[in-house]
Write a structure and sequence with these properties.
The protein is α+β, with helices and mostly antiparallel strands and 108 residues long. Helices cover 32% and strands 31% of the residues.
């Protein structure tokens, strides 16, 4: 019983609110705000859907999507798609979010 009281006292003394995760100065790609902004842009016709971008890449380069973030390339909104080919190579595709065209690729 005494042990339970000690545990209860320790839990009561613990901070109730989780501390924010430190970002170490990195850009905040992929956050909730970015997802909402991207969704609004697709609905408004200002950006192509990510599914279309992924299908276009898959048609050209068989493999699978590892990760995608958004940012800008040359002042235009862009998707940065990390892609793994079937033979294990990793390629970063930079895709114009407005047209869906692949701007560049790195790696692979």
């Amino acid at each position: 019983m005494k042990r339970l009281l000690v545990i209860a006292a320790m839990l009561a003394a613990a901070p109730a609110v989780a501390q924010p995760y430190p970002d170490y100065g990195r850009p905040s790609y992929g956050g909730r705000h970015d997802q909402d902004a991207a969704r609004d842009a697709v609905r408004g016709g200002r950006q192509v859907p990510l599914s279309q971008v992924i299908a276009n890449i898959a048609a050209r380069t068989p493999g699978r999507q590892l990760n995608t973030t958004q940012g800008d390339a040359g002042g235009r909104p862009a998707y940065f798609v990390q892609w793994q080919t079937n033979d294990g190579r990793v390629i970063i595709f930079v895709v114009d979010a407005q047209s869906g065209q692949i701007i560049s690729r790195q790696g692979g």
